[in-house]
């Protein structure tokens, strides 16, 4: 499944997790998501987003980043294993 995003944001209610989720863009670790840093800026094109947190199933999707002035939010819900 491909989701279309602008230059781009990824957010979620991370408060229910014991640790901040790890974020990967095209297979490269880019950091941990926190309340203060829930936004990901990505270049145009097809990108693979992966979000992981211990004790939860990983979330991975291909998205199409459309670029400015588009701005869309990808809400991620991590399910318990």
Task: Give a topology summary.
Layout: E1 2-5, E2 9-11, E3 22-25, E4 28-32, E5 45-52, E6 59-65, E7 73-75
Parallel strand pairs: 1-6, 2-7
Antiparallel strand pairs: 3-4, 3-5, 5-6
In short:
The chain is mainly beta and 81 residues long. 0% of the residues lie in helices and 42% in strands. The protein has strands at residues 2-5, 9-11, 22-25, 28-32, 45-52, 59-65, 73-75.
Describe the structure.
The chain is built from no helices and seven strands. The strands form two sheets. The protein has a five-stranded mixed beta sheet with strand order 1-6-5-3-4, with no helix packed on it. It has a two-stranded parallel ribbon with strand order 2-7. It has a single domain, classed as Immunoglobulin-like (Sandwich), CATH 2.60.40. It is an all-beta fold and 81 residues long. 0% of the residues lie in helices and 42% in strands. The N terminus is likely disordered. The relative contact order is 0.38.
Number of strands: 7
Strand content: 35-45%
- What top-tier CATH class fits best? Mainly Beta
In spatial order, strands of the major sheet run 1-6-5-3-4
Low-confidence stretches: 1-11
Order of helices and strands: EEEEEEE
| CATH-derived architecture | Sandwich
Roughly how much helix do the residues carry, as a percent range?
under 10%
Instruction: Return Rg in Å.
Output: 12 Å
The class by helix and strand makeup works out as mainly beta
CATH topology: Immunoglobulin-like
Distance between the termini: 22 Å
The average pLDDT value, as a whole number, equals 74
> What count of structural domains?
1
Choose one word for the global shape.
globular
Number of helices: 0
């Amino acid at each position: 499944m491909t989701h279309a995003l602008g230059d781009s944001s990824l957010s979620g209610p991370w408060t229910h997790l014991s640790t901040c989720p790890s974020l990967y863009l095209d297979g490269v670790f880019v950091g941990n998501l926190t309340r203060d840093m829930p936004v990901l800026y990505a270049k145009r094109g097809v990108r693979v987003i992966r979000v992981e947190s211990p004790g939860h199933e990983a979330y991975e999707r291909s998205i199409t980043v459309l670029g400015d002035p588009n701005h869309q939010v990808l809400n991620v819900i991590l399910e318990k294993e």
